[in-house]
Amino acid sequence: MSFSWIDSYWPLLLTGAWQTVALLVISVGFGFLLAIGIAFAQVSGGPVTRLLARGYCTFFRGTPLLIQLWLLYYGVGSLLPLIPGLRQSLFWPILREGFFFAAVSFTLNYAAYEAEVLRGALLAVPKGELEAGRAFGMSPLRLVRRIWLPRAIRIALPTIAGEVVMQLKATPLAFTVTVMDLYAVATKVRQDTLLVYEPLLVVTLFYLVITAFIAGLFRLVERQVPMRR
Amino acid sequence: MATAQQGILDLLSPVPPGWGGVLLSGAASTLAISAGAFLIGLVLGTGGALGKLSGIRPLGLILEVYTTAIRAVPELILIVGLYYAGMDGLNRLLALAGLPAFELNGFAVAIAVLGFVQGAYMTEVLRGAILAIPIGQIEAAKAFGMGPRLRFRRVVLPALLPNALPGLANLWMSIMKDSALVAVVGYQELALATRLAAASTKHYFLFFMASALIYLALTLVSNALFTLMERRVRRGQPKPAGHLAP
Fold first, then answer.
1. Which residue on chain A is closest to B220 by alpha carbon?
2. Which CATH class for the A20-179 domain?
């Protein structure tokens, strides 16, 4: 075991950690917003929206994330330049990066899993509380904002914490589309120094620290809103 | 346009000018890897669950480290790390025994590694399922004078299956999707076969979409099979109360 390479690689490790965290925050943040929409579409949408939302969840939960990522990066990525004017546009520098495709596919994937969790939680909110809200004359939107959604999120919190950790563990896939995340740094160190296990161990440590941080964060949030059982 | 469309879809035909055959054989090896890993995981998981519940302290501690470590580390890192460590370790053992080093085939290593990872998750699923069996049933079996093995076969196993099947179904779905990660270490299953086909024909979207649909079909069929199986092992059980029924 030799760890002398850390001296010259720690700036790269930190950038890698930053990329990993950025991917995680982007996909969880946007994915959660998307998931709220999909969950409500399934719970209270019409037959068509319900079917679309179900199809979305089935597709993204039924296929490997790696395939989704490659479908987006190689498949959609190869079709994008065909759109006239896009190559000259302001967004092209972002649109050609692997990071963009990784962020989008992780977001879509996370939204599908999270929507299922939220759907269950929305259905688990006691009916009486919603009826009480309606009896107070709340409009449907206000009912969702003040009672239905907050209660559902509180119910789902422990599951959401698990989902976020799962999402963290999915982020190393981004290295297959040229994103320089933590795992990609480990691969680079392996190529440069021919050490296999040491970089993987160090990177694993990083992931464990991030996991511990997520778990702690959610414990804190859960304690803010105690639930009566 | 119609003829051009026809030309593109011809790429998916199963005979050699098309790449359908490559995709299908990739799908077959994906299924084989998943099934192998699932079985190894099942054996490890049963052993792990019984070990954890046996009350032997050092054994419980070792198993706790196994399940926690495996479940905390990203699958990709585990697979890459164990893939090299497994090959390396085996060759060192062979060298110790004075035998020549040999190149293990990727298929066996993929199954072993995924099975080892799967075993950690199985341990937890099966442990939970065993704990959910009413203790009275096991005590009754003991009172009848059944030995541990007969007790496991006749009482514990049939009683744990309904509890464990949903979890096992989840694990089967996730192993099928995780087996795509083996592509990263270079073993040709469906994901890598797709990438190959896409790269040589430049029809990336078509091929990745096709393989996504193959995975989806595999998942949906498995889902249906597991539903049937669960209905079978739950026969004779009371139906859940009305408001919980789907």
1. A62
2. mainly alpha
